[in-house]
Specification:
alpha/beta, 21 strands, six-stranded antiparallel beta sheet, six-stranded parallel beta sheet, 482 residues
């Protein structure tokens, strides 16, 4: 949900074009040849200009987001998103002259976000500095620097004179003037043996986080913590959320328009904050809204993911999205960017493949709700359990044509079939007569992207014959049942 709008330069010229690949694009006119020229040949023009606009004329023009969960968040918060904004910081030195706006990403984005009142989310990870920086108290055990202490306790504010960090105190960064924990340094929670933070540390966390809330009024706050920061050894995290909710309600006439995310929640917690599952999906449907956070590779750009092909495929991402939505969840997908702010060609191809699947099947994702059951098939009976905050990605067996996920929109049921059957026949057991899940008659079945298909009800379920040679997409397909 971080990308909530587009931004163009208000005084530059933009064009709507139909390219040689059959798609329609909007981009800066000065960049058309650079971006689309490769599509042309001696026989075929690279593009045809359909309309021209100034950037200002595109302002507030709406577009459809790639993932429905982002739009749902914006709608729930009663804030408008997914339209074109204008700002002079957009240049034509590279790219398309159209940039995504993520209000928490940087100063320019934040300024545009405030100007247009866009949904704004922030993630907080700093409670863990107390334990995760404990390695900085150590020293190399071998080699030329053996026994020489790291920075945590020996580098001071005075050491910065004449250097780029002059005026800053490394002790405030490392906060390591305390005893080491009696266990491995990178534990996530606060188990017995953990070095307990001081009141000064709690106060610093509270003051900095509350200052962020008061300055920027975020719509979403993501805590990278089990339940809340410092839970269960201290109530500082709870005090921060109490301030956040109460302030938000005062600003919104008594209505709460704020969302807080936390991990490893118990049922009673889920009534107050939203459960975040890191790199995983719960094995069953959930009564309360929840979220999976995951990424194409590692959380930060890692060249080895590119070289060794460790990225998730478009199929993996789409299958996860389908499974998540069927269980009443949203997906927060990170696409790691390089140091220059760009993504690599493999990431771009993955996103293009996801978009191609969405072009055909978006109605079975956007605006849907969970059905009576989330799914059927072997994957529903032998799902891998969550490991702590999540981390069951890749631990399930491959999907089969019997693995189906369900969502609904009004009276329509969408059945996501996660693999194409060799015999071109699908049997949906959950729609068998007499099982009580669906009492209305079935008049029509469509294969999205291919049209109406033949069907019949049997004692085993709804039997659907798929057309040979008309597979809409290699990732998965959807049956629209009405």
């Amino acid at each position: 949900p971080s990308n909530v709008a587009l931004c163009v330069n208000p005084v530059e010229s933009y064009a709507k074009v139909k390219a040689a690949d059959g798609k329609v694009y909007y981009m800066a006119e000065a960049l058309l040849d650079t971006v689309l020229g490769r599509l042309g040949s001696e026989e075929v023009k690279a593009y045809e200009v359909l309309e021209r606009y100034t950037g200002q004329e595109l302002e507030y023009k709406e577009y459809e987001p790639l993932f429905a969960c982002s739009a749902a968040v914006a709608e729930k918060q009663r804030k408008k998103g997914y339209y074109v904004t204008c700002d002079s910081y957009v240049t034509l030195t590279d790219g398309t002259g159209v940039v995504h706006i993520a209000p928490a990403f940087g100063e320019d984005d934040a300024n545009v976000g405030r100007k247009y009142d866009l949904p704004f989310g922030v993630s907080i990870h700093s409670s863990h500095a107390w334990t995760w920086y404990e390695t900085s108290q150590g020293a190399d055990k071998t080699g030329p620097y053996a026994g020489i202490p790291y920075d945590a306790r020996v580098v001071t504010k005075e050491d910065g004179k004449g250097k780029w960090w002059e005026g800053y105190d490394p002790q405030e960064l490392y906060v390591q003037n305390h005893s080491l924990s009696g266990h491995i340094w990178n534990v996530w929670d606060w188990p017995q043996g953990t070095s307990v933070p001081t009141q000064k540390y709690y106060d610093n966390f509270f003051n900095r986080t509350v200052d962020m809330i008061n300055r920027y009024n975020p719509d979403l706050v993501y805590f990278d913590d089990s339940v809340l920061p410092f839970w269960p050894i201290n109530d500082t995290g709870l005090d921060v959320v109490s301030h956040y909710y109460n302030r938000n309600m005062r600003l919104n006439g008594g209505r709460l328009d704020a969302v807080v995310f936390g991990k490893k929640l118990q049922p009673e917690h889920k009534k107050a904050i939203v459960w975040d599952v890191e790199k995983g999906v719960p094995p069953t449907g959930q009564p309360e809204a929840w979220q999976t956070c995951t990424c194409l590779g590692n959380w930060h750009y890692d060249r080895s993911c590119y070289v060794d092909n460790w990225y998730k495929s478009a199929q993996t991402v789409v299958h996860m999205l389908i499974d998540i939505v069927s269980k009443n969840g949203n997906m927060l997908l990170s696409v790691p960017i390089k140091g220059d702010g760009t993504i690599d060609d493999k990431e771009e191809k993955i996103l293009e493949d996801i978009a191609a699947w969405m072009d055909i099947n978006k109605e079975a994702i956007f605006g849907t709700r969970p059905w009576a059951v989330f799914g059927e098939g072997p994957s529903t009976e032998n799902a891998a359990p969550l490991d702590g905050p999540g981390f069951n990605e890749g631990k399930n067996v491959p999907y089969t044509p019997s693995d189906i996920r369900f969502v609904k929109k009004g009276d329509i049921i969408y059945a996501h079939v996660l693999a194409w059957p060799d015999n071109n026949e699908v049997i949906i057991k959950s729609l068998a007569p007499g099982n009580g899940l669906h009492t209305a008659g079935i008049k029509r079945v469509e294969l999205l992207g291919a049209g109406k298909v033949s069907h019949k009800l049997s004692a085993d379920g709804l039997v659907v014959k798929l057309p040979r040679g008309k597979r809409p997409n290699d990732i998965s397909f959807v049956l629209k049942i009405s």
